[in-house]
Write a sequence for this structure.
């Protein structure tokens, strides 16, 4: 049978890993796919680097659009990234009736609705397992393995850079700025780490998982995003003292009045498995009505872990290229005309528990004033930690954990508490999730 010819756009870290894995496991991949899969053309602006990796085993050019227009190419693998030229290339490949494999989470989160509609119209597939959690097969699991379930919620550590920073801050008692510099020196964080540390990268991935889990369109612009750059080592230690770990979580929950879609630092009980995921590893919990909780764990980035997902997508596409498009697995798990228009809830309507840290003047009656404000807004306290002032200081920290309540009530309470003359500075608020049901 004729081999499947692949055009590879971008041969950086993941592209190089993809080329290596395809070459090394060529025989195994052919046995799984039922025919050979070969990279015929590689497009990259850095011809010297590309030629060094390819070493004569494929044609190398610097014009990605020429690959997309090549009639001999069956599948286009887009590993350039970004939302500019990559979008043009993917849409042109689709219009040329070529199947697409991509690891581009930002592009799919922002423009996936348009891309999938074009693919549906042209009868081709867009596969994107590598866009979320690197080598962890979460997309296939949500789309196929858990297809019998009504997905109730998804919660994941889906950015390795942030998880590394939080792990190091906890283990070493170091500051955020010091650990960020360490992460950059180790290559875990970019020179501009904004997307990672401010939760944008995680929000891209969460948007994709929520669309598949709940059968809704991509709605990245509706996702609430809050990063870890303002976390202090004191809060990480206080959380530990109370039996919790702080992780940057992406959380999507099905509620009666809409979908929660949020990324933010979160206290998780230390006894939960996901609370003990350290370093650059990823982990995702999925709660289905039939299966209960499932957990997916593994490397969320890196050349070969991500290449594992890219090549798996190539095999999937190869297996189903000749199938009737109407009988393929839908891009977002649900049939395109069956997507729900259920709303994404505004953050003020989200219900969860909270960690509140207040710096207060050490005077009688302070606690009574604060608890009165909370009670007036129907916020009850689950646990409290009161620190004695350091010698020579007139201020102390009070840490409270609340029971579940509505975010807008917590916002109102914080505004009133900060206005008290006995409270110094801003109240630190971190959301808390038990993740037990």
């Amino acid at each position: 049978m004729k081999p499947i010819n692949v055009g590879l756009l971008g041969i950086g870290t993941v592209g190089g890993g993809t080329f290596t894995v395809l070459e090394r496991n060529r025989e195994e991949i052919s046995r799984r796919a039922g025919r050979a899969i070969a990279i015929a053309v590689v497009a990259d602006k850095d011809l010297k680097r590309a030629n060094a990796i390819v070493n004569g085993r494929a044609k190398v050019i610097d014009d990605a659009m020429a690959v997309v227009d090549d009639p001999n190419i069956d599948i286009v693998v887009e590993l350039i990234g970004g939302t500019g030229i990559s979008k043009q290339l993917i849409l042109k490949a689709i219009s040329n009736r070529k199947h697409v494999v991509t690891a581009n989470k930002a592009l799919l989160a922002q423009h996936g609705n348009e891309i999938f509609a074009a693919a549906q119209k042209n009868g081709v597939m867009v596969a994107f397992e590598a866009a979320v959690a690197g080598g962890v097969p979460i997309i296939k699991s949500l789309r196929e393995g858990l297809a019998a379930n009504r997905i109730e919620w998804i919660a994941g550590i889906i950015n390795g850079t942030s998880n590394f920073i939080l792990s190091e801050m906890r283990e070493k008692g170091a500051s955020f700025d010091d650990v960020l510099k360490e992460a950059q020196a180790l290559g875990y964080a970019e020179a501009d780490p904004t997307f990672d540390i401010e939760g944008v990268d995680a929000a891209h991935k969460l948007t994709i998982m929520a669309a598949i889990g709940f059968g809704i369109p991509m709605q990245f612009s509706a996702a609430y995003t809050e990063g870890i750059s303002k976390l202090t080592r004191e809060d990480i230690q206080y959380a530990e003292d109370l039996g919790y770990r702080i992780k940057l979580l992406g959380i999507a929950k099905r509620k009666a009045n809409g979908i929660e879609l949020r990324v933010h630092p979160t206290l998780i009980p230390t006894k939960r498995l996901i609370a003990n995921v350290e370093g650059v590893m990823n982990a995702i919990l999925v709660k289905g009505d039939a299966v209960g909780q499932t957990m997916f764990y593994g490397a969320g980035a890196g050349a070969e872990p991500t290449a594992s997902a890219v090549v798996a997508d190539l095999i999937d596409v190869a297996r189903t290229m000749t199938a009737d498009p109407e009988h393929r697995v839908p891009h977002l798990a649900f049939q395109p005309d069956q997507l729900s228009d259920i709303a994404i809830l505004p953050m003020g309507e989200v219900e969860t528990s909270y960690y509140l840290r207040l710096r207060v003047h050490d005077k009688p009656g302070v606690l009574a004033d604060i608890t009165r404000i909370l009670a007036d807004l129907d916020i009850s306290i689950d646990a409290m930690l009161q620190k004695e002032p350091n010698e020579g200081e007139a201020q102390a920290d009070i840490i409270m954990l609340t029971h579940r309540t509505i975010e807008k009530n917590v916002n109102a309470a914080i505004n009133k508490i900060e206005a008290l003359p006995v409270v110094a500075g801003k109240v630190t608020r971190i959301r808390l999730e038990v993740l037990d049901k």
Notes: Residues 349-432 form a domain with the Alpha-Beta Plaits fold (CATH 3.30.70.260). The radius of gyration is 24 Å. The chain has three domains: 4-135+303-338, 145-299, 349-432. The mean pLDDT is 93.
